[in-house]
Every structure is written in C-alpha cells, then in structure tokens.
Amino acid sequence: MITLPNECYYQIFSNHWYYDHNYHRDLFSCSLVNRHWCKVIMPILWTVAGQHFNNIKLIRTLLLTLNAEEQTLLIPFKNILPNGPKPLFEYTSYITMFSDHDLNVGIKNWLHYKRYEIEYDDERCKIKNVNKCSWIAMLLRTGKNIKYLILDE
Q: Which segments constitute the F-box domain (predicted)?
C-alpha cells in the first residue's frame, strides 16, 4: 500500500476548504476517518475558527481550554463554564486569526445557550467584558500561529 506524504493530504484538504467554506462539516467528517487524517485536518478546521463562533460545540471546546487563572475571572458568574475533560488537541494553537467581532458573537451565543439571564445593562456589559478578557488571554497564551488579531476596543 502506498501512502501520500502529509503535505499532499494537507494540500488536498486545505484546497477543499478554501474553495468552499460550507464544507466545514465534510472536513470534520473526514477527520473521523482515522488518526492520520484527523491530525492533518484539525489545523485546517481551526485556522479561522472565529468564523464558526456561532457553533456551540466549538465554543464549548474553546472554553475547556481555559486554564485556572482564566477560569477564575468567570467563577462569580455561575454556570458559564462547561464541564468536561481537556480537549484532545490544543485546538486554539491552530488559530491564525480572530477578531473582536468573532469573540462578541461567540460570547453572545454561549450566554444565550447557557440561558444566562442578565437584568441590567451594566451587568450585561461586565459579563461580556470578563468573558472577552478570559477568551483573549487564553487565545494569546495558546495561539502560537496567530497572524491577524483584530480588536476594536
């Protein structure tokens, strides 16, 4: 049996990704074929993860990457942190760009998913800012490949 070099797999899968971003699910399915494909595909899927911050599973995985210090900021706001083991990969190390807008979308979706009720505008602003600080700290700590960082504030 002849196997292709990793570079060939990477080119095949990344070209598939770059031509049509709607194939995110297809690539994810391909990552389940075997460990070799998974190791090649995960960096491609997570390169521009911010585009998918509306996906609750992705946000949950992102939050499981927070270290103890980053989680400490969120402890006063009960039920925000997910339960579960640390992810298999350090997915956030594959991210090459993220923006303030992506983070805001992700935080809004996560708080809505957790049914986190916020009565006052001041409290809403505080919980969003605390989440954003935790997420940014984690992304900067783990983001070995970040090339583009867009923060408006």
A: 3-47
Residues 61 and 41 in one domain: no
N-term to C-term CA, the chain: 54
User: In total, how many domains does the chain have?
Assistant: 2
Same structural domain for residues 103 and 146?
yes
User: Is the same domain home to 29 and 41?
Assistant: yes
- Could you report the per-residue pLDDT of 1-50, keeping only the tens digit for each? 778 888 998 888 887 655 555 677 788 888 999 999 999 998 888 887 77
The DSSP-derived string for 94-117 is G--EEEHHHHHHHHHHHHHHTT--
CA–CA separation, 99 and 149 (whole Å)? 6
> Which pLDDT value is given to residue 35?
92
